[in-house]
Amino acid sequence: MSKSASGVRLTLFLVLAVIVLLFLNVEKSGSFYVDAPTNVLFDKSTNTLDLNSLTLKQKIAQMIITFGEEKNKDQLQKMLIGGVYFGAKPTEEDFVKATGGFQDGATVPFFITVDMEGCKNPFENFRKFPSPREIGTSEQAYQVGQEEGRTLNEMGFNLNFAPVVDLNDNIWKCRNFLGTPEEVSEKANSYITGLQESGIISTPKHYPGETLSAGDLHKYSVYASVDANDLLPFENAIKNNVSAIMVSHTIVNGSLDSEAKPSDVSVKLVGGLRNGFTGLIVTDEINMQGLKSYYSDDDAMYVDLFKAGNDLVLNFNSDPRVLDHMIGVVESAVKSGEISEDRIDASVTRILAAKGISVVK
Q1: Which domains does the chain have, with CATH numbers?
Q2: Whose CA is closest to 115, among 173, 49, 67, 77?
Q3: pTM of the predicted model as reported, rounded to 2 decimal places
Q4: How far is residue 169's CA from residue 166's CA, in Å, rounded to a whole number?
Q5: How large a percentage of the chain has pLDDT more than 90?
Q6: Which residues does residue 280 pair with via DSSP β-bridges, in sequence order?
Q7: How many CB atoms lie within 10 A of CB 13?
Q8: pLDDT tens digits, 176-196
């Protein structure tokens, strides 16, 4: 073989190697491109949205809350993801910048969510609040709810995954109100009232109770038996017009039966909650082992979460490719008839209403 032919082959090999490396680097960087939506008929002057202008994928995207990573902001905006969650940041200004950055330029406003559940709060670097166990009276619970609500409003939040209304916390030992079931219920209702009067959606958790008693759902499946006392704080919160309730991954029997499934994928359990509740039904974070270990296939898990009747699904894997795959799996299940599109429309209508948007068809 001539030197010139060998040189050409070496050059081609090197060019090909560079192309492959570039492709791998793009994949590694998580680059994901979505066209800006042009179909959405949302009149911001009247806060009305034509539901029929949303594609099925966009409706499903509205039902997802993910972690708010700045690098994914543009993609999440274009996908019409329903909400983002923020953990701790150093300063109040950092939160204001982050929340405003997601809302600015969003075709449909996001739920901007946080978790003020107790042991620690994400604002501890600059503002302290008492944990639930430090709240002694219903009056104090109302004041804490109001103060937290004002703080969240100032920083651009609109949804709080709190309060915890499990009667016991044997895992973290700091997330529950103390007292009898009636006292816990009264404190929770006072906190919820204070929070929602300040313009923040409250999300008592973890329905149907006993989630913090038997084991850590972050690590493994948990089985528990619930009774009327466990359900009392949720029933009273519903009477108190709470805006949302979070359903856990606990597998339960007793006063309620999840049919040997995690609660938030049980059609029977979620459907029973829906029968007496018009607000938002929210799953716990779906990458916890208490749910994932029940499935050998994430795709089956995605379908069951939407089939069960949840309005909002928390998936804190913020990689847009993972979210897009999840949306595609659920879209296929709707198109095949496994999930009703009317059921999706009902959830999206509730979501938009909670965002202050009226739906027209």
Answers
A1: 49-355 (3.20.20.300)
A2: 67
A3: 0.91
A4: 7
A5: 88
A6: 244
A7: 10
A8: 999 999 999 999 999 999 999
